[in-house]
């Protein structure tokens, strides 16, 4: 009998070895559609972990008209902010609470 799959880990976080240092709380985009948040500082070329599930307060774009509870939230890796603009950005998850236009952060439940 051939093994089809072997359990590796729960998947709440994933291993990541960055080419340059990553600070705790940094949002890291891997490939086109995978996003994680560093749980702790990760020195360059050192194995660390990125959370891929959980609830985080994330810095948001200002002047975007606000984000409604339940709205899809995307990460703008160029501006380093959460936004509702999907074009050229990576899906983070859903807003758990409304964030007004002048709010500096939005509460997001990560979902890949």
Cα gyration radius (Å) = 15 Å
Largest sheet: 5 strands, antiparallel
Average per-residue pLDDT, rounded, comes to 94
Enumerate the strands of the largest sheet in spatial order, edge to edge or round the barrel.
5-9-8-6-7
Q: Low-confidence stretches at least 5 residues in length (pLDDT < 50)?
A: none
Distance between the termini: 32 Å
Q: How would you sum up the global shape? A: globular
- Helix-strand topology string: EEEEEEEEE
Q: What report would you give on this structure?
A:
This protein has one domain. About 0% of the residues lie in helices and about 40% in strands. The chain has no helices and nine strands. The strands form two sheets. It has a five-stranded antiparallel beta sheet with strand order 5-9-8-6-7, with no helix packed on it. The protein has a four-stranded antiparallel beta sheet with strand order 1-4-3-2, with no helix packed on it. The N and C termini lie far apart (about 30 Å).
Please tag this protein with its features.
single chain; 112 residues; mainly beta; five-stranded antiparallel beta sheet; four-stranded antiparallel beta sheet; globular
